[in-house]
Design brief:
Number of strands: 2
Shape: rod-shaped
Strand order of the largest sheet: 1-2
Number of domains: 1
Helix content: 55-70%
Distance between the termini: 67 Å
Structural class: alpha+beta
Radius of gyration: 22 Å
Number of helices: 1
Length: 63
Amino acid sequence: MPKITVDGMEYNTEELTDNGKAQLASLQFLEVQMKKLQNEIAVYQTARNSYVAALKVELEKTK
């Protein structure tokens, strides 16, 4: 049986109402979108760190 845990309570998803299933689908969609955004943020942060490091090298040349 497919189950989901919410706030420490386990529920059988097969027993959800249609509205509950819609809410679950929305939650799952948002979880996927959040993971994508977290991955994008990690890429941007890595790029930012590289630019900061390169800028520090250039700033040291001006001393």
